[in-house]
Amino acid sequence: MDKWQRVAPIALLYFFFDGLIGSLKIFGYSLVIVAANLDKVMNNKGYILLGIVIILCLILLSSFLQFYFFKYRLKAENIEIHSGIIFKKHLDLPFTRIQNVKLITPAYFRPFSFTSLELDTAGSQKSEAKIVAVSQELANSIKQKILTYQASHTDTENEADSANDIESSQEPSQEIVLNERSLRDLVIHGLTNNRVWIFLAMLAPVADPAIEYIIEMAGELGVDINAIISDPDYPVWQLSLFIISTFITAYIVVMLLSIIGSIIAFYGYTLSKKDNTYIQRSGLLSHHEVVMKLTRLQLIIRKQDWLDVIIKRTNLKFEQLGLFTQGQQPGIRSKIMVPSINDAQCNQLINDAWPDNNLQHAPFERINKRYVFKLISFLVLPFNVLLGVIMVQLNAYVMLPLLTVTFAIGCALAYCRWLRWGYHRDDNYLYIRKGLLGVSYYCFPIQKIQQVKFKQSVFLRRHHLCSVTMVTAASALSIPFIPEGKGWSLVNECLHNVESTKKNWM
Amino acid sequence: MSELQDDQSPQFSNTQVDMAQLAQYQHQQGTPLEPKYITANVYLRIITSCILFLIVSVVNWQTFKPVPEDVSNVLDIALIIIACLGVYSVIFGYFSDKAKSYVLRECDISFYSGVIFKKIVIQPLLRLQHIELKRGPIERKLDLATIQVFSAGGAMHTFELPGLQHEQALQLRQFILDHKDVTTHG
């Protein structure tokens, strides 16, 4: 294993698709120019075809060279990767610095049972290592090697963990499936949560021109609508029916797209646990595998959209370090997310991860009511004033009474927002509840706090209120408008917990 | 958790002293930033505003290629805005620099700032990832330094402490690096 070796020739496919997608992206941006000079383009079809062939040849050549220069070497304690055609890259990665091992199988690797191995590091995005095109068994054995090495080396620092590890290593370690999602669950997930962004991510190369096209279309449509409105022959009911039916059609299309997106992202979803490691597998086109050690878990989020609240489903998120997700698809890769589970399953999973937590029965405390006034004066009022100014500018004085309605809705929403806010602290955990129509519960161990912030404006000081922000490695969470005394004791007690227990946060 | 505390009982009593002082914590008098740093900042703000003002006024009133009437009107307004913002930033900046201070305790370092919006950032030294000493050309000239403490909270939540004497900053960095929590949990 410790010799320099190339990846399987199937990697050519990977490099080819990579190059193709890269050039498609560039092409996507230039699509506007092409569209503007469409007649010229149509006159020079031969040249265009020649250009495409040349580009394809170049991509093929570069993918062959990339394959030729891509070598890796697996040693006892580290992995080395050489890559790059002109700009050589040499990566030497000790196993201890690897945060996360992911197996990603693109759709075109599936028939050949090959996969690619991604190693997340604590450093920047650039130093991320990727071994493309290794066979399924080899990938698993490399992963196992890294994980066992880490288990035997990192945990010696932490007594509690090593005790757990010894315990679990005595019995044969087996993967226990904690949760599976059926197609029905995924359909529900698609309905309740907007998963359209998965499509948007796919459309990214052509997004810019597409948006312009849509705006253009809307412009044309707008003219059309204007004609309808100004035409006295059309009765009002016909117009409103037209608008409503358009709206419903658009909504149905979005919902369908969302369901398909949900199925693409989460098809064949399994969450399993092996020793102290969670493994999430999912994906219809590309298989994604996310591996997260329990000790790396920083924050648990129970998220319910308003539809979820009605049908009592929950999305459960396990978050680890938030640093590495920059520039990637949001929310799907390095976090674990269990879509649309019911309450019992959700509590079971949370209690499995952190048995001593009490998220289910946490008696949440409300924040101060002045929060509603703040929202109204800083968000609702300016928005309504702006709306009023626009109406006056358009001479739509008839519409002005509508402002009372929008203002009332705004105030109601602000009140809802206040109603959702809640916080609670017990000996080991901090719980935060927030939301507007939906609701999210956040829960994290106090000893994993990285930094504490205390904020107070002149206005808040007059009313003896303050805001407290707790920064964890996953994200920063704020609790606004709580009594000064409580804020200080929260800050002091959390700091005391962190500094006196001296527990490791990883 | 209890066994951990038992192991490190001297540590525990150490922080309990902090707990006893908690009543004073919020009224704790921090160390203000170096006066040199504050004055330098005032001059810097005056100079940048003046340069900006000068550039716009040169464009406005140069005679080589007179600007059109309507552009000139816009530039006049821009000049007034720049002047107002300049005066504001100098005065407000002075007071906000005056309001900044820091407190170093046994287990954490806090940075106080804000005139209207008071803000206190407290960084437990235990959670330090790495530490950087930053010195720009002006800071080097004035023998000042800025300390940056990075935690796993991300780049958004970097703890930054500006306006320290260079010598003092080096000592502070050494103190933080020598901190027993950092050396054992690094």
Q: Structural class, from helix and strand content of chain A?
A: alpha+beta
Average the pLDDT over all residues of chain A and give the rounded result: 80
Largest sheet of chain B: 4 strands, antiparallel
| CATH topology label of the largest domain in chain B | PH-domain like
Oligomeric form: heterodimer
Strand arrangement in the largest pleated sheet of chain A: 7-6-5-11-10-9-8
Total domains of chain A: 4
End-to-end Cα distance of chain B, whole Å, is: 20 Å
Helix content of chain A: 40-55%
**Cα-atom radius of gyration of chain A:** 27 Å
Helix/strand structural class of chain B? alpha+beta
Briefly, what CATH class of the largest domain in chain B?
Mainly Beta
Give the total of beta strands of chain B.
Answer: 7
Strand order of the largest sheet of chain B: 1-2-3-4
Overall pLDDT confidence of chain B: 80
Report on the biggest sheet of chain A: 7 strands, antiparallel
Keywords for this entry:
heterodimer; A: 506 residues; alpha+beta; six-stranded antiparallel beta sheet; 15 helices; 20 strands; B: 186 residues; PH-domain like; four-stranded antiparallel beta sheet; 8 helices
Q: Would you mind describing this structure in some detail?
A:
The complex is a heterodimer of chains A (506) and B (186). Chain A has 506 residues and is an alpha+beta fold. Chain A has four domains: 5-153, no CATH class; 186-266, no CATH class; 270-367 and 421-501, no CATH class; 370-418, no CATH class. Chain A contains 15 helices and 20 strands. Chain A has helices at 11-36, 38-43, 45-69, 136-153, 159-170, 183-192, 196-202, 207-230, 236-266, 306-311, 343-353, 370-393, 402-420, 458-462, 484-501; strands at 5-6, 71-74, 78-83, 89-94, 98-105, 114-121, 129-135, 176-180, 270-274, 277-282, 287-293, 299-304, 314-319, 336-341, 422-425, 429-434, 439-445, 449-457, 465-472, 476-483. In chain A, the strands form four sheets. Chain A has a seven-stranded antiparallel beta sheet with strand order 7-6-5-11-10-9-8. In chain A, strands 14-13-12-17-16-15 form a six-stranded antiparallel beta sheet. The longest helix of chain A is centred in the middle third of the chain and has 31 residues, at 236-266. Chain A is globular. The relative contact order of chain A is 0.08. Chain B is built from eight helices and seven strands. In chain B, helix 4 runs antiparallel to helix 5 (69-99). Chain B is α+β, with helices and mostly antiparallel strands. In chain B, the strands form two sheets. A four-stranded antiparallel beta sheet of chain B has the order 1-2-3-4. Helix content of chain B is 56%, strand content 23%. Chain B has two domains: 38-96; 101-186, PH-domain like.
